Amino acid sequence: MGRGVSMLMMAHAAWVGVRYTVVVPLLHVAVYLCAAMSLMLFVERLYMGIVVAGLWLNRRRRRRRSGRKGRDAAAMDDEKKDDSDDLEAGGAEKPMVLVQIPMFNEKQVYRLSIGAACGLWWPSEKLVIQVLDDSTDGAIRSLVEAECRRWASKGIRVHYENRSNRNGYKAGAMREGLKKGYARDCQFVAVFDADFQPDADFLRRTVPLLLADPAVALVQARWLFVNADECILTRIQEMSLDYHFSVEQEVGSACHAFFGFNGTAGVWRLQALADAGGWKDRTTVEDMDLAVRASMRGWKFVFAGDVKVRNELPSTFKAYRYQQHRWSCGPANLMRKMFWEIVTSKQVSAWKKLHVLYGFFFVRKVVAHLVTFLFYCVVIPACVLVQGDIRLPKYVAMYVPAIITLLNAICTPRSWHLLVFWILFENVMSMHRSKATIIGLLEASRANEWVVTEKLGSMTTTMATKKKKNQNQGFHTPEILLGLCLLYCAIYDIIFGHDHFYIYLLMQSAAAFVIGVGYIGSQ
Questions:
Q1: Which of 193, 195, 281, 287 is flagged as catalytic?
Q2: What's residue 479's pLDDT?
Q3: pTM (2 decimals)?
C-alpha cells in the first residue's frame, strides 16, 4: 500500500516537473503564436471588408449619378438586336472561341454541361466545343460520345476527345486538347467542369471584357449553387464560397488585377495561357498554378461577379473531404514550388509580389487553416488541463474570432441562423485541412493525390438517401479521437474549471462525433 502511494507521489511530482518546464512554456508560445496568426487573419479580413464596402458605395454612387435605369433597358434591347443581327450575318467580327469540358466518369452530369455549352449564343462558325473525356468506364465513354454525336448532328461543332491514359489528370487533358489543329485557330478558351451549366449569354457577357483590354488574360465568373438547400453540408459550403467570391475574388480583381482561377467558369486568352507556359500538372491545383504564372508575367484578371454559372456542391462528406484535401494541400505545395519564382519575377511590382506571397498564399492558404486547428482544437483544450497557469487574452479567445466570423458570414444572410453549426463544422474540418496543408508544404506522399469530386447531377435527394442506405459509410477515426479528447477536457473543466470553457468544448466534441460517424451530408 505504502509503495503504491509512493509511486503515485513520484508520478505526480514528475508530471508537475514536466508541466512547468515543458507543457506550460510550450502553451505560452502557442498562445502567442495563435494571437499573432489571428491578428494577421483579422487585418486581412478587415482590409478586404473595407475594400468591398468601398466598391459597393462607389457603384451605388455611380448608379445614382448616371440615373441610367431607363437607358440601360433600351441599351439592352439594342444590344440583343445587334447581337441577333450579328449571329444572322455570320458574326464575322466575333473571335473564335473554344469551349473545353474536361470530365472523368461523369455519368450523372455529362448531358448538363455538354447541352449548356452547345446552347451558348455565339456564331456557330466561331464556336468549337471540345469534350475531354478521360473516363475509364467504357459504358460511360460510349454515352458521352453518343451525346456529342447527337449535338454534332444538329450542326454544332463538337469534338469528342478520349485519351488512352490519364497523365496529368485535368491539366494533361486540357493541354492535349489545345494541341488539336482546330483549337489553334481559337483566340479564347472557356473552361467548364462537367457539372457546370453556363447561361446562353455567358460568352456575350465575358468575351467583350477580354476584347476591351488586351492586357486582360482571364475573366472569371461566379458560381451559382443549384443544390445549396439539399442538406446542412451544402448550406455550410455555400457560406464559405459566397465569401470567397463576394470578397476575396472581388478585392483581388479590383485592387491587384489578380486572384486564383477557380478552374472552371472562366475564359482565358490563349495568348496569355501560352505566354505563362500553358497547363502544368506539378500540383493538384493546376488552375491556381496557371493563374500565378500568368500574373507574374504581367497579365491582368477580371472578376465578373454579375455573371453566374450554375453548378453542384459536393453533398456527400466523402467527396467533400477529398475536395478539401486537394484545395488545402495544392496551394501549400504550389507556394513551396513557386516561392523563388515569384520573388525573382521582374515583370511585376514588389507590392504585387507581397500580395501574392503574403496575402494570397501565406495568410489565406496556410495561416487560416493552421490557426483554426491550433487554437480551437489544441490550445483551448490544453489550457483547460493546466488550470490557472495560462490565461487566454480575451481579444484572442473572443473579440478577434467573433469579428472574423461575422465578416465571413455577412455574405450569406439567409444562413445566419446556421452560424454556430458553421463554426463548429469548420473547426473540425480545420484538422483535415491543416494536415493537408502540412503535407503540401513538406511535399509528403499524398501531396499529388487527385480524386475527382463526385457529382450526383439530377439525382433527387430521395435517390441519394437510398444510396446512403446501401453504402457502408464507416467511421472517421481522427474526428472521433478529436471528439473524445474534447469531451475529456470538457468534463475536466466542469469538475475543476472556472472559465466555463466546457460549454464550447461539449458542443465542439458533439460536432466532432457527428462528423466522425459520417452523419452529415446526403450521401
A1: 287
A2: 94
A3: 0.88
